[in-house]
Amino acid sequence: MNGLFQRRVRGFRVVEMAALLILLALVLSVYLAKAGAGRERAEIARVEQAIVREQARMKLLRAEVAYLEQPERIERLSSQLGLAPITAQREAALDALPALAAVGTPPPAAGVASAP
Fold first, then answer.
1. SS3 track for the chain
2. Residue 19 lies in a domain
3. Domain assignment of residue 54, yes or no
4. Model confidence pLDDT, tens digit, residues 20-43
5. pTM for the structure as a whole
6. I want to staple 113 with a disulfide (CB 3.0 to 4.6 A). Which of 70, 75, 93, 97 is the partner?
7. How many structural domains does the chain have?
8. What is the domain extent for residue 11?
9. What are the residue ranges in the chain where pLDDT is below 50?
């Protein structure tokens, strides 16, 4: 064992050369680990920014849906288009639906559904 510590190659002891190689391997592995961590950190930041943008977009879309679903707005649009609720005379019984679909005419008086 003592011979291993005293053996020299071109003026350097074998143990010193092995230690230098191990040190270089450790330095290289730490450098690669730091570079990988930096890439991961950048990817995490990019994903977090995308999440923030999507949350803002969702907030905007929720506000738009709330505006579009306002009863006053829907009522105003329906009155502008001349739409009105269905009258009781226009309601059809469930059994009359296939015949109405085939003919495409308003339901007859016999097909009026009774109010529950």
1. CHHHHHCEECCEEHHHHHHHHHHHHHHHHHHHHHHHHHHHHHHHHHHHHHHHHHHHHHHHHHHHHHHHCCHHHHHHHHHHCCCCCCCHHHCECHHHHHHHHHHCCCCCHHHECCCC
2. yes
3. yes
4. 999 999 999 999 999 999 999 999
5. 0.49
6. 93
7. 1
8. 2-102
9. 110-112, 114-116
